[in-house]
Amino acid sequence: MTEIYLCEKPDQVKWVFGTEDAVYTKADLASDPDRFHSVEYVFSTWGMPVLSVEEIKTCLPNLKAVFYAAGTVQSFARPFLECGVKVFSAWGANAVPVAEYTVAQIILANKGFFRTMRYTDRKWARTAYAAYPGNFDVKIGILGAGMIGKLVIKQLRDYRVEVLVFDPFLPDEKAAELGVKKATLPEIFEQCTVVSNHLANNPQTRGMLTGELFSMMPENATFINTGRGAQVVENEFISVLKARPDLFALLDVTDPEPPRPDSELYTLSNCILTPHIAGSSGNEVRRMAEYMREEHKALVAGRPTRYEVTLQMLKTMA
């Protein structure tokens, strides 16, 4: 056999790839290494096992590429890359629903939806609604212009909004191409009616979003987090939300996730928690499988691929 499904969670493979083919695990590789010497391509998704360089060389000596139908490959990719095995990720496919989800929240946030949806007092709701700017001639802040951030920016082109972006790795010419203005974190938090977090999750970004920044937000502003919770200094963030009931937080991710049982995030009236639902779900997971199948076809045919991950990219990728 020249290609296999390799995953510790066979049901995930069946769900994502829509297949009933055999799914092998790390234990299968270890129990009969010779059986897999002819394998050239591995397909996987959530539940991809972590293999050492030695295990790869012993069990999969002829492996050419891993096609991962999910997002981040940080947990397993490095040993494969060090062995000269190409790694492809469906992060591009997983970015699509996250961007769609984010843009939907941005539009609703600027309409005052989240602040007024719980109230039956129509007079009060109308007064509160009037304090929101809508989606015309407003500034939207995007933190991180990776794949998801760029998709959000492109989808926002349908609206009359100015997009400010914080991303130290975004070249000026790319910012101009995207039609955005590069800005510092304080500038974004001071000026934008909505700030959406898409920063890569790495040691450099951990704790980057402090209470001081959140306290700068304009009246009735909204913070959206579909990236990672580790960038937010949570205790400081909670203090600001308590002191500023006009602000609103839409959190699809937290740190830890879910929040601790005693977290005040559960009780704040100006905070909505969702259980990490922005990424691919339901039928959307099939898009990830399609992306990886197309990458496989392109690689075998000698055509350019789109979603290869390199060792250099791992330094800044989520």
Key descriptive features of the protein:
318 residues, alpha/beta, Rossmann fold, 2 domains, seven-stranded parallel beta sheet, six-stranded mixed beta sheet
Amount of helix: 25-40%
| Contiguous uncertain segments of 5+ residues | none
What's the CATH first level of the largest domain?
Answer: Alpha Beta
What is the CATH superfamily label of the largest domain? NAD(P)-binding Rossmann-like Domain
Number of helices: 14
CATH architecture of the largest domain: 3-Layer(aba) Sandwich
CATH topology name of the largest domain: Rossmann fold
Task: Indicate how many domains the architecture comprises.
Answer: 2
Helix-strand pattern: EHEHEHEHEHHHEHEHEHEHEHEEHEH
What percent of residues are in strands? 15-25%
What is the 3D form? elongated
Q: Characterize the quaternary organization of these chains.
A: single chain
| Tally of DSSP β-strands | 13
Give the terminus-to-terminus CA distance: 33 Å
